[in-house]
Description:
globular
Amino acid sequence: xxxxxxxxxxxxxxxxxxxxxxxxxxxxxxxxxxxxxxxxxxxxxxxxxxxxxxxxxxxxxxxxxxxxxxxxxxxxxxxxxxxxxxxxxxxxxxxxxxxxxxxxxxxxx
Length: 109
């Protein structure tokens, strides 16, 4: 009986992680891809204009700190001269933000 409960819990966890991953991809496609690009290369017109980083680059990925990335998503980013570089996505829940940060890490090539 314990094995059955453990197995059911593992399947439930796997389903939840898959759902979070699918939701994160959907949020990326809806909110982020227009600047960062579908693959995270920052190779869109807007991305080039704003200086978006190439999230497929291992060196860029090494510099990404999860807390800072989450804060940037929730609060947005501004340049030194107070120009908006990325608008805040404060409508996202904390779990959605964490899933989106995790999704960004999957873009590394």
